[in-house]
Amino acid sequence: MIVAFERPAIDWHAVAPEIVLLSVGVLVTLLDILFLEKARPYMAALSGLGILATAIPLLTLGIDGNDRILFDGAYVVDDFSLVLKAVFLLAGYVVVLLSTNYIVDGDYWESEYYGLLLASLMGMVMMASSRDLRASSGISSVDSSIKLSISSGIRYSVESLILFSLVMLRVL
Q: Which three-class secondary structure state does DSSP give residue 95?
């Protein structure tokens, strides 16, 4: 007996904040790749506006008031997760505001900083709705390893990142 894959029903409104945040992260990364130094002055503003745009689906989900359960209960969007997501987005926005001049004055790679910040924020937002312990620990571990690998500047850090990611994929 062959069992065909059945695509799970996805409530796109429930995952809209994650999709908006992912889109902004991809946009920041693409601008960094395509325009290099020309895009640097706009990265902080783009990241901040993206975080604010992510709050719009959160508000509509809060106004709707219905609990949304996806993937057989592994991902739940309820009032508690919406409050946590709002707190994380507010903290991320404050970090973008506070770090704008600090990053410009230092000898840092601005675009990578904001890309990592958005990736970290994406992990926090996803963990707020995750009800599966394996998914929560996997998201936080991979996110931490990416930040450590890129910020360390060690020659073998990328290889260790790839190895760790493969191990985490096997565990998940």
A: helix
**Per residue in 14-44, pLDDT tens?**
999 999 999 998 998 888 888 877 888 888 8
Residue labelled with tokens 């919406």: 82
pLDDT at position 171 over 50: no
Rounded Cα distance, 26 and 113, in Å: 13
Cβ-Cβ contacts under 8 Å for 37 (sequence gap 6 or more): none
Give backbone dihedrals phi and psi of 4, rounded to 5 degrees, phi first: -80, 155
Interacting residues of 42 by C-beta distance below 8 A, sequence separation 6+: 31
> pTM for this one?
0.74
**39-57 pLDDT, tens digit each:** 888 888 999 999 999 999 9
- Residues paired with residue 75 on neighbouring β-strands, in sequence order: 70, 130
The answer to whether residues 70 and 11 touch, using CB atoms and an 8 Å cutoff, is yes
